[in-house]
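Re: PLI structure - here you go.
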Amino acid sequence: MPQKRDSWAEPYKIKMVEPLTMTTRGQREKALEEAGHNTFLLPSELVYIDLLTDSGTSAMSDRQWAGMMLGDEAYAGSRNFYRLEAAIRKYYGYKYIVPTHQGRGAENILSQIMIKKGQFVPGNMYFTTTRLHQELAGGRFVDIIVDEAHDPESLFPFKGNVDLDKLQGLIDQHGADKIAYVSIATTVNMAGGQPISMANLKALRELTGKHGIRIIHDMTRVAENAFMIQQNEAGYGTKAVAEIVKEICALTDGATMSAKKDALVNIGGFMAINDWDIFEEARNMVVVYEGLHTYGGMAGRDMEAMAIGIEESVQDDHIRARVGQVFYLGQRLLDMGVPIVKPVGTHGVFLDAKAFLPHLPQTAFPAQTLAAELYVDSGVRAMERGIVSAGRNKETGDHYYPKLELVRLTIPRRVYTQAHMDVVAESVARVYEHRDNITGLKMVYEPKYLRFFQAKFEKLPK
Ligand code: PLI
């Protein structure tokens, strides 16, 4: 049973530090210009507090670093693979696993196997790489998340829930055999790090079960979702996060995992599945794209660190501190009156760029603009999660126009302190004060795939 604590204070102390570069405003202006106003194109040496992503940016524990020394770098049958397989079975409960170099490697293999051309892939909001792999495999993503997820002001605690009527409608219209599977993320990144409830997942299992449709789980941040269930869902307050994680996984048929988030490693991922035939196909396909089925693009030492990270990630004390730090930053911004997605998400605080810069049309890229302004102000690096990330509709060629136009302040796990969070909050508040003087951007270079990573922009004149 989880212990009640008043404070979210960290259950660890610092043993090694990495110095940060402090830059001047002039240096940052120059760097941003050279980066085409895209924070992805900044050299990290010119970043003070890096909130671009929580992906692969965690600090590993001393146990994980010690585990790295136990790497068995055999091409085939590394002992670390078997340790990883055992950890996944123990903490997540899936039967068969295929390691991959990171989450999108697993998405590629799973999509190619499970999606037939023309099939629909309904999901609780899109994620960039996930949807792209679904589309490349010939599938069509359909958003079946509850409407509350698209409203940054809605205080609904489970904005990651599936709207079952939307799914039923899709089944009625096209038939169950036109649905490749239902794609469920815990938590929902693009909605602002919002969880799905266990009750909703159970109802989804019942509905899909009736129609023989599988549920595939993007479990990238499953422990964070489990923590929110523990905190906010009736009947779960006395259950440990580890227990809730396993219950979530048991309601699904398979998963893709970017271990670079929850699982506290700098690289790695896997696909997991309970069906032997799909596993056999995936285990064969992994040798084409990733590496042998007992390493899948990872070094032995990486698999060892992941096995240990998985265990650490589901501990109540860890997850309370991790989410507690995010909530701390969120609360500071709320107290300052800055518009953010509510409720505060579990892996980051999402600034509502439409409300922050209401004078900019979405085609002037308000979130991209705001992320750039924040960097110039303080060297804090954030990420656009709006129209640039949403990309273009393949059929019409026009931008997708997402309702949410957000800047994500993503908190790496076990990396920054409360004082760093204060610096971030104060910088956001400064930018908010002079928001009326901020002009938008125009896109001057647009790559074909996942454009947000490499697109370049120029400032629009005043
Ligand atoms: O970055 P990958 O390939 O290890 O994982 C892709 C991926 C899949 N699902 C979800 C929910 C993600 O958040 C995710 C990657 N997210 C990144 C890189 C992020 O910055 O949020």
